[in-house]
């Protein structure tokens, strides 16, 4: 059974845990660095990236997670998780800075502009529901980074080798195809 | 087709706040302190609840300039309060682009019979509740998030504890019932029948439920998480304490690590004086904000 960590400082932790378990994985809550042992993959959930960053710093999780990412541990960041992974952020200081993408925060406006839409993702499947909540987007990608999906001309799902990041929240829907893609083809 | 303001988009926004602390602020400076401490959102107000108590008179929606100032100061979501049933205050806040509206008993109600039809709005709403009937009626009207009412501005956790225990005990009861018992339960609670069926199917409320109304210390915040709250609102507790920066950080950490008692001991050391509390028994019936709402 694959052991997948879910960063559990704040945000959509329960949803990711349930989805991982429905895919036959063991989900491990990560609250401190000792929890990071023996993982096959790590999910960075949606939530508030500024809050997660403060807590990552205070509990000395930032460096250990960065090291694991550099050692090749597969990671999947959704929304705030993508912001944590990005090498560069527009107008803000970067966090883990491991995924070769430039990300802009709150790209679609405020909560009244948040939306849901169905995306066709050639690599994964058709009509995948995507929920964008005060979502970021990927402004540009580095060499070797695969763009898996775009919406309205903005990149919203990309893969940098063992790192996967999306602007939206697959965990809020009952469609597990993107997470399944991560655990079955990347982990 | 791209759709805004759907139930999923509105409820999802609250799901992203889980495990976090939402702080009352009255200006840009306080908002920045809250964001730096790790708040997941701020509630922009003209006065915190304890000052609303002191001031007396009619409490209304905040001056839009204050809300705007707070929205300009931070990158985290900004919430604001509208009076119960005040359609125009809510529409004004929505038009300004606030991320969440609290239809709040902390303000003087504008309608003593009807709450807002919150499903009509693109912006999501949070509402207070003391029991499952109240919680289910608010969800039925379209609330995307709940919070306990507690007793705002008192620094006394006792009412918030009562409310979260009550709601969760009633949810457990519904989950344990057979289908044929639900209609009578719906009648007794004054709750929509379909919602009780949904609660039974999910095994929990269909929206997140935060604690609010009396959280004054890191231990209070952790207590509410222990009792099953999804997160915590802190009103007067932070900026009425002696050292708001330190207090705000400690409350955020205690909420995340609510079962780590050594850590809570550590962060609670020398925090300075918390807000002065009020014994609920000292409040007259018309001073109890939790009685507002129906």
From TrEMBL, chain B:
Protein residues bound to D-ribose 5-phosphate: 24, 153, 214, 235-236
Annotated catalysed reactions: aldehydo-D-ribose 5-phosphate + D-glyceraldehyde 3-phosphate + L-glutamine = pyridoxal 5'-phosphate + L-glutamate + phosphate + 3 H2O + H(+)
InterPro entries (alphabetical): Aldolase_TIM, PdxS/SNZ, PdxS/SNZ_N, RibuloseP-bd_barrel
Pathway the protein takes part in: Cofactor biosynthesis; pyridoxal 5'-phosphate biosynthesis
Keywords from the UniProt entry: Lyase, Pyridoxal phosphate, Schiff base
Main function: Catalyzes the formation of pyridoxal 5'-phosphate from ribose 5-phosphate (RBP), glyceraldehyde 3-phosphate (G3P) and ammonia. The ammonia is provided by the PdxT subunit. Can also use ribulose 5-phosphate and dihydroxyacetone phosphate as substrates, resulting from enzyme-catalyzed isomerization of RBP and G3P, respectively.
Family: Belongs to the PdxS/SNZ family.
Protein name per its UniProtKB record: Pyridoxal 5'-phosphate synthase subunit PdxS
């Amino acid at each position: 059974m694959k052991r997948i960590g879910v960063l559990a400082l704040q945000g959509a932790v329960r949803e990711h845990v349930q989805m991982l378990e429905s895919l036959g994985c063991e989900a491990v809550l990560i609250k401190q660095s000792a929890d990071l042992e023996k993982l096959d993959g790590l999910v960075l959930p949606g939530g508030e990236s500024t809050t997660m960053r403060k807590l990552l710093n205070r509990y000395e999780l930032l460096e250990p997670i960065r090291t694991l990412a550099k050692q090749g541990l597969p990671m999947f960041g959704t929304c705030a998780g993508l912001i944590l992974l990005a090498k560069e952020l527009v107008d803000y200081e970067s966090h883990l800075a491991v995924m070769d993408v430039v990300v802009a925060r709150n790209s679609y406006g405020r909560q009244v502009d948040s939306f849901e839409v169905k995306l066709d993702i050639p690599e994964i499947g058709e009509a995948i529901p995507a929920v964008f909540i005060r979502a970021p987007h990927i402004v540009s990608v580095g060499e070797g980074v695969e763009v898996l999906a775009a919406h309205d001309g903005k990149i919203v799902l990309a893969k940098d080798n063992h790192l996967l990041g999306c602007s939206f929240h697959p965990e809020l829907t009952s469609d597990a195809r993107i997470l399944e893609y991560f655990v079955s083809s990347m982990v | 087709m791209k759709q805004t303001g759907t139930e999923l988009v509105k409820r999802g926004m609250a799901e992203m706040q889980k495990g976090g602390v939402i702080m009352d602020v009255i200006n840009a400076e306080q908002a920045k302190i809250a964001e730096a401490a790790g708040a997941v959102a701020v509630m922009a107000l003209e006065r915190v609840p304890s000052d609303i108590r002191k001031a007396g008179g009619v409490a209304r929606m905040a001056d839009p300039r204050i809300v705007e100032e707070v929205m300009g100061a931070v990158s985290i979501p900004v919430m604001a309060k509208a009076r119960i049933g005040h359609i125009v205050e809510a529409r004004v806040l929505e038009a300004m682009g606030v991320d969440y509206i609290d239809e709040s008993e902390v303000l003087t109600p504008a309608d003593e019979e009807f709450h807002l039809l919150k499903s009509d709005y693109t912006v999501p709403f949070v509402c207070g509740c003391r029991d499952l009937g109240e919680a289910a009626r608010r969800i039925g009207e379209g609330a995307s998030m709940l919070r306990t009412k507690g007793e705002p501005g008192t620094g006394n956790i006792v009412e918030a504890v009562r409310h979260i225990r009550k709601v969760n005990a009633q949810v457990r009861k519904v989950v344990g019932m057979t289908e044929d018992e639900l209609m009578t339960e719906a009648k007794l609670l004054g709750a929509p029948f379909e919602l009780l069926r949904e609660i039974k199917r999910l095994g929990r409320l269909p929206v997140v439920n935060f604690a609010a109304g009396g959280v004054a210390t890191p231990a209070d915040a952790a207590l509410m998480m222990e009792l099953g709250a999804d997160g915590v609102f802190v009103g007067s507790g932070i900026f009425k304490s002696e050292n708001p920066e330190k207090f705000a950080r400690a409350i955020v950490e205690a909420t995340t690590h609510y079962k780590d008692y050594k850590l809570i001991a550590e962060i609670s050391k020398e925090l300075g004086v918390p807000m002065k509390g009020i014994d609920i028994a000292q409040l007259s019936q018309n001073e109890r904000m939790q009685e507002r709402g129906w």
